[in-house]
Amino acid sequence: MTTIRRLVRWEMLLAILVVALIAVGATVSPVFLSANNFSNLSAALTEVAIMALPMALVIIAGEIDLSVEAMLGLSCAVLGFLWAEGVPLWIGIPTVLIIGALGGALNGLLVTRFMLPSLVVTLGTLALFRGLALVVLGPRGVSRFPEWFTTFGFRNVPGTPIPWPFVIFAILAIVLGFILHRTWAGRHIYAVGRNVEAARYSGVRVDRLKLSLFTLSGVVAALAGVIFTARFASARADAGEGMTLTVVTIVLLGGVNIFGGRGTIPGVVLAFFTLAVLGNVLRLTRVSTEMQSIATGALLILSVVVPMVAQQLKLAIERVRRDRHPPSVGHIAGAEAAGGEEAI
């Protein structure tokens, strides 16, 4: 219950921060609250937010996937190459999703079968996928996609300021949130992140679970590449460069523990809005791109440091309480008996 309350407080803090940023935005710019600005605000980080959802599950399980931006670029390159060669999109899009699944499965197999650290593995596949994208498409760009495709990328749902790609993000957030918080699979993800060996001895198929999560991350990164191509009406091999930092920032800012075992999808969604509103306010006030990058880096550091400091303060307070009120002999005996029964 303590962990749940702490997460709720963290999410509440993010919600308050979003409201405060909205108030600042409305003050500094008269166009901030316009429907057109909301559409631009939510579209600017849509691909990043989509990739952050499965990344949250991967990190909660105690791993990380740094190759997502390169998979996005590879899917853009393959989709552009296929379209330039006359392959229709109804074949090209499933093809790049399959490539995403294969790339994610490669990460998962290297981590689970060869017992390699995911940080090193996904750094390697980051370079691999980016290199493959350059081989497939080279330095050229491909455009002239069908109107229905590009319309989906940058148009809104009729009668609303909501971009179509944001609908994909919302659906993924609901589905993955349900899986993580309401199913046995979600409980297994938390268990693996807290103690992988204990989860294994409890009957959790750890390797299969991690392989599935990496595969999911690859598929969603490829989907983000399709959306990116549609939104910019162009396919390039260098698409998505630098996105991984923002993806990880959103996940950690959302309250996901970098060491695994803790985090929520609602927290990640709130972190997305926090970063999106902050970036929009900075752009409206004409803050330089460099300063925006500094703000993103500062948020990443704070999202890691603040929970760790809070945990250390909590431990210090508990230590002081124990020193002031040491447990009696009877209390210790009862605790030991309870611990023995739990172990049994």
Mind telling me the CATH class? Mainly Alpha
Helix content estimate: over 70%
Number of helices: 15
The string of secondary-structure elements, in order, is: HHHHHHHHHHHHHHH
Describe the structure.
With about 350 residues, the chain is mostly helical. It has a single domain, classed as Orthogonal Bundle (ABC transporter involved in vitamin B12 uptake, BtuC). It is about 75% helix and about 0% strand. Helix 3 packs across helix 12 and helix 3 runs antiparallel to helix 13 (about 265-285). The two termini are about 25 Å apart.
Name the features.
single chain; 344 residues; mainly alpha; ABC transporter involved in vitamin B12 uptake, BtuC; 77% helix; 0% strand; disordered C terminus
Secondary structure layout plus pairing:
Elements: H1 2-28, H2 35-44, H3 46-60, H4 68-84, H5 89-112, H6 118-137, H7 147-154, H8 164-182, H9 184-194, H10 196-201, H11 206-232, H12 243-253, H13 265-284, H14 289-324, H15 329-343
Question: In brief, what are we looking at here?
Answer:
The protein has helices at residues 2-28, 35-44, 46-60, 68-84, 89-112, 118-137, 147-154, 164-182, 184-194, 196-201, 206-232, 243-253, 265-284, 289-324, 329-343. By secondary structure, it is mostly helical. Mean pLDDT is 89; it is low at 335-344.
